Amino acid sequence: MRAAVSRLDLKLFQAIFNFHRDTVLPVIFRIISFIGDGWFYGFYLLYLYLQKNELFKPTVYVVLIAFALELPIYRLLKNSIRRVRPFNAHDVKNMVFPLDEYSFPSGHTSAAFLVATIIAYFTPFLTIPIFIFAFLVGMARIYLGVHYPSDIIGGIFFGSGMAILAIVIVEKLIV
């Protein structure tokens, strides 16, 4: 069973990685991945602050708690599972250079879905575009050769789960 899942993961990786490489897609996915590096997420908090929105304070609490939970557990998972990245395991050329050695779970995807879940909770009208963006961050990481599809799926569940936990903590204990 595990071998079959690994084969499927590799086939999906290859299909996404090899998709229209001679078009503008590599540039687009590099830009999406760059935005997914994390610095961009602060613009949402700045937007709430500048709008004098009453959601600013609870949103900041949730974001801080979510990342305080996510980052150490993410590092523990990465360094425990130690999944080799696709560009190190197969004959593919990565288009970006990751900050760490291992591939599972995808940190970019985890952060993107963590932030998307929080934004969707506090600003529902942004739900569809922010989840589309988060999904594209995950796809970009596959396309750029640094993650398998299962790394992305792991990042989706992990990041979303950490956001939900932080929302519950803030609602029950702080606000």
Describe this protein's structure.
The protein has helices spanning 2-17, 25-35, 42-50, 56-81, 86-89, 107-122, 127-143, 149-174. The chain is an all-alpha fold and 175 residues long. The protein has one domain (2-174). Helix 4 (56-81) crosses helix 8 and helix 6 (107-122) crosses helix 8. It is globular, with a radius of gyration of 17 Å. The model has no long low-confidence stretch (mean pLDDT 88).
Structure keywords:
175 residues, mainly alpha
Annotate the secondary structure layout.
Layout: H1 2-17, H2 25-35, H3 42-50, H4 56-81, H5 86-89, H6 107-122, H7 127-143, H8 149-174
Helix pairs in contact: 2-7, 4-6, 4-8, 6-7, 6-8, 7-8
Rg computed from alpha carbons, rounded to a whole number of angstroms = 17 Å
Major beta-sheet overview: none
Which blocks of ≥5 consecutive residues have pLDDT under 50? Answer: none
Order of helices and strands: HHHHHHHH
Total beta-strand segments: 0
Average pLDDT reading: 88
User: Shape, please?
Assistant: globular
Structural category is mainly alpha
Domain count, please report it: 1
* Residue share in helix: over 70%
Instruction: Report the total helices.
Output: 8
Q: How far is it from the N-terminal to the C-terminal residue, by CA?
A: 46 Å
Percent of sequence in beta strands: under 5%
